Structure prediction request, 168 residues.
Amino acid sequence: MNRSIVFVGLALMILAIGLFAYPEILTGAEAVDLEVQVGIVVLPLGIAVIVLGAAAPDPRLTTVGGMFGNADENEMRKRLARSPPTGQARFLPSPLESVNCRKCYTAVPAQMADCPRCGTHRECRGCNKPLYVLAGAVRCAPCLKDEVYCSCPKVRKPGAGRRTSGHW
Prediction:
């Protein structure tokens, strides 16, 4: 039950009863004036709003739309309040993605071990050692596995720790 909506319907019913009684209290005679006719229209409207409020879910939060709360707003706040993932988001390149040659910056497809322009061996993304064509597939030479399944110890790439901008 949404109490806010029920209270609005209750206020409409009190208004309708007041409009019914207004001519009799003011003049002392029963008359069907404009106020009574408006009360006749407002009374079923108040009852409908009370029934709507009784059937509506109870929001713990009212929105900027007024006193008719929004249950969807509560669900969105719960989802946004969840803690973000703790580690850094790391997007590894796809094993089928082409790489650039370290010498001439030519795009080398994943199925090729040598640069088509300068002939330099492409480096394994896991261990940074040269790749060779072995048994019809591009494989890491030290562990003899595909580049995707390389189990060599990880080696830092040369120059990974130094800055190249020159500002420091």
Summary: Residues 3 and 58 are 7 Å apart (CA to CA). The chain has a mean pLDDT of 78. Strands lie at 99-100, 107-108, 131-134, 137-140.
